[in-house]
Amino acid sequence: MNKFHKVARQIVSLSLLVAATGVMAAEVPAGTVIDKTNIDTIKNDTFDGHTIASLLTDKIEWQVRNWNLRITLDHAKPFPAEPRLVEATKKYSSLVKFDPNTKEVSGYVGGVPFPEIQVSDPDAGFKIMWNFYYAPREGDTVYNDAFILGINANSGLETKQTWIYQRYYFKNRLLDKQPVVGDGSISAKTFELAQYPEDIKGVGTFTVRSDSARFEDTWAYLKSARRARRLSGGAWMDPVGGSDFLGDDNNVFNARPSWYKNFKVVGKRWILAVTDGKKESRVASKSGTVDEFPTVDLKNPPYWNFVEKWQPREVYVIEATPPDEHPYSKRVMYVDVDAFRPWYSENYDKKGEFWKFAMSVMRSGVSEGGQNVLIFTGSEVIDFKARHASTVPILGRSDPAGITEDHWSLSNLEQLAK
After folding, report:
1. Residue 383, H or E segment
2. DSSP 8-state symbol, 296
3. What is the bridge-based pairing of β-strands 217-222 and 342-348?
4. Using CA atoms, how far apart are residues 94 and 115, in angstroms rounded to an integer?
5. Which of 88, 147, 166, 326 could form a disulfide with 110 if both were Cys (CB 3.0 to 4.6 A apart)?
6. Which one is the CATH code of 130-417: 2.40.160.20, 2.40.160.60, 2.50.20.10, 3.90.550.10?
């Protein structure tokens, strides 16, 4: 066969392929919306060099097809490096020790504890989650106003609650003269306090997270009873109030990694996630209407989908095995390769059936203290079996001035609740 005939045969083969698939693959522009009406048409097209099909996880595609999820594509934006974090990593990461038997970490001071991770390392999954646990990129102090929307897939918005969420990290403090506050025995302290409606106002929790394998110390405060009571050590995996969240769903993942039985790195891939969320997640002047929260599609069933732009991100796919007493039997998390944040998690019940989907919405920004951080603009847990979701628009803040470690006490929570 001469060269001419070979070329001719290739042209014919390509023509048959195009005829079979409809049109040749194309690079779609930013602003393209993926929905149930066009997903089959554009799956073979590309965006930022990746096929649409390869960017969609099975459960995200399932939501597009069955739960009216609409994904608006946006070009990937790199997260600005934080020089203080880079310097702390260089200075302190060599001090960190990982125990392969207990899966515990010792010697952590600041920065990213495991800056170099090989997927072939049998403990790579644990090290990835320790990177998130110690260096979540939120700032030294988090001070968020969160609106928890209880949403029914059939009837829409059912409840609206307003909460304050505050967390103070005692290690990896990049704005202070010293990276560690106190003697190093505490990792973080957290306040969660209800503001609205009136019947739950003053309900709150205070959590002390020690830097050890022991469970957190958590107290619940009831304003009506004017007293606090200590909760069990397993509170971190209990349901949060009347919401669809478990304590472990906060930040998508909210446990000390050693509390889990295993983290298996399945591989690396690219996905779509909301990593440049809108700054304005609430319009106060439209309070009480479906337009109050412009980042949530409260007008169209199932009413819980975020109205945001999604960007390609490279992630580790991690299969997590919780302890036996945990409500989930398995979690599949998609953890950012650069920021080590889990963007979302597929959570399975004790029968191994898909149950809940947890998701974070963030954007990069500069904290009030001047460091490059990732700021929360939303989060969500969808219970597909109950056809219900807790969707949370967030007004995120980092490193507010004037808040010191003295702020973080049970007595102060009681004062805030009054």
Report:
1. strand 372-383
2. B
3. unpaired
4. 10
5. 88
6. 2.50.20.10
Of 237, 193, 247, nearest to 412 (Cα)? Answer: 193
Q: Is the dihedral of CA 229, 230, 234, 236 positive or negative?
A: positive
Q: Exposed, middle or buried: residue 380 (CB in 10 Å: 0-12, 13-18, 19+)?
A: buried
Query: What is the rounded distance in angstroms from the CA atom of residue 182 to the CA atom of residue 166?
Result: 19
Sorted by where each begins, the domain ranges of the chain are: 3-73, 130-417
Site of tokens 């022991």: 214
**pLDDT above 90 as % of the chain:** 84
The token pair that represents 14 in the structure block: 């390509």
For 1-24, what is each residue's pLDDT tens digit? Answer: 554 444 445 444 444 444 444 456
CB 345, CB 253: distance < 8 Å: yes
What are the pLDDT digits (tens) for 373-404?
A: 999 999 999 999 999 999 999 999 999 998 88
213 confidence band (pLDDT: 50, 70, 90): very high
pLDDT digits (tens, 9 = 90+) for 271-307: 999 999 999 999 999 999 999 999 999 999 999 999 9
**What average pLDDT does the segment 15-40 reach?**
77
Burial of 324 (0-12, 13-18, 19+ CB in 10 A): exposed
Report the distance separating Cα 29 and Cα 83, nearest Å.
Answer: 33
C-alpha to C-alpha distance for 194 and 202, rounded to whole angstroms: 6
Distance CA 102, CA 175 (A): 32
